[in-house]
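Quarterly update from the structural biology core.
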Amino acid sequence: MATPMSESATTSVKAFLLDALQATTVTISEPLQSLWGGQGSIVSITSDSLNHPVAVLKMIRPDRDASHPRGWNSDASFQRKEQSYVVECCWYEHYAHHCSEQCKVPDALGVLASPDQRLILLEDLTPRYPVRCTRLEPEQVYVCLSWLAHFHAQFLRKETPGLWPQGNYWHLATRKDEFAAMADGGVKQAAQQLDHRLRASAFQTLLHGDAKVANFCFSGDLTRVAAVDFQYVGQGCGMSDLAYLLGSCLSESDCLHNEHLLLDQYFAALSDAMAADWSARDCLAIEQEWRDLYDVAWTDFYRFLLGWMPEHPKINLYTQRVAERALMNLD
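Predicted structure, tokenized:
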């Protein structure tokens, strides 16, 4: 639970809000939710702003002593979380405005960093995207696949200083504690090779980095979507986002029976999104490379789960089959 703000901190936050919203009055709600690991909270903002009478404020107050939900309270864990919010501020200040409606993200209304807290003021997506989901049917996943495809196409082979050099929160270099906790086996032995294959992809792009279905906001009819939570946005192979998304919203059976269809849908959307700036030859080359890396990306996340939470329900027959294929095809 986040520690209540002092009177001086509240005054400072309100001054920031009044300036960012060009308002004369502003009200801060009670926390809507706490940030992961007790590192702050998200609140609703109401004001007399003409353009944004309702907004959302992400209030980040790093706390070294906050408890981790899974017990991973090492210095590395805290430093990773702290850096993730530095990255998220950079994302909203310098990159978010490049996203089109096809990969919608909340508009950044203001960002403020100080020694003891960071503030990210965002458009309230609720009027246009009021629905949050924990599960999807296979036919409902396309809207998220299309979002990922347009996001990946937008940032393909572009320099993104200030973001993570390697995106997603589970990559090997940032999960040494979890790797050490893994039982020995084929996935652990292949961990370096899996990581290298993803980093060596010729077609690097920006990863959302935490593209689970819970971080997507849907329109009422589930035909449009926007994404939130950009703490782990950084460079990588788009298959890391895709594998993570599918594992977050589909059952084991749905993955087993719809893998090829969902990959086809993603790559069709990616080709459409790339069409204006890339040749048909490039579109084919990226599809060929990334299709081969789908199993690698899924198995790379499996490696993280084996160390972080080996009883996780995502460790199922489908995950094990994908890992078998990936390990068999490693050089």
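The radius of gyration is 20 Å.
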